[in-house]
């Protein structure tokens, strides 16, 4: 049976195991982005990884508007990609592309390049052994970096 709080008659506490879950009738049915200032919503979204941020962007129109209008959210992730694909990211940013577009253009390439440079594919003996699902086009300079790393191993 729910316990009615003495402090606020509109708040009920529900006990689940050892945790207490508080629900307020005043805010039920609303999402945090409707009640919090945009800056706080952006702060919450900034804690998400890239995949979760993309999922959040398609959750509802309000979340999409906040995420799409906040270039800052994409900047931090893009700088992580830049650690591996500096030339590509700097070229896209120099060309005037937004942080989000730059991230989308280079994220997959970064993942593939990072795996190659870490030696994940050092045991591959022929082109047929390269996994198709994870590959994406890489430029000649990137292949040069990968070749140098393989020769050093």
UniProtKB/TrEMBL annotation:
<dbReference type="Pfam" id="PF12937">
    <property type="entry name" value="F-box-like"/>
</dbReference>
<feature type="domain" description="F-box">
    <location>
        <begin position="30"/>
        <end position="77"/>
    </location>
</feature>
<dbReference type="InterPro" id="IPR036047">
    <property type="entry name" value="F-box-like_dom_sf"/>
</dbReference>
<protein>
    <recommendedName>
        <fullName>F-box domain-containing protein</fullName>
    </recommendedName>
</protein>
<dbReference type="InterPro" id="IPR001810">
    <property type="entry name" value="F-box_dom"/>
</dbReference>
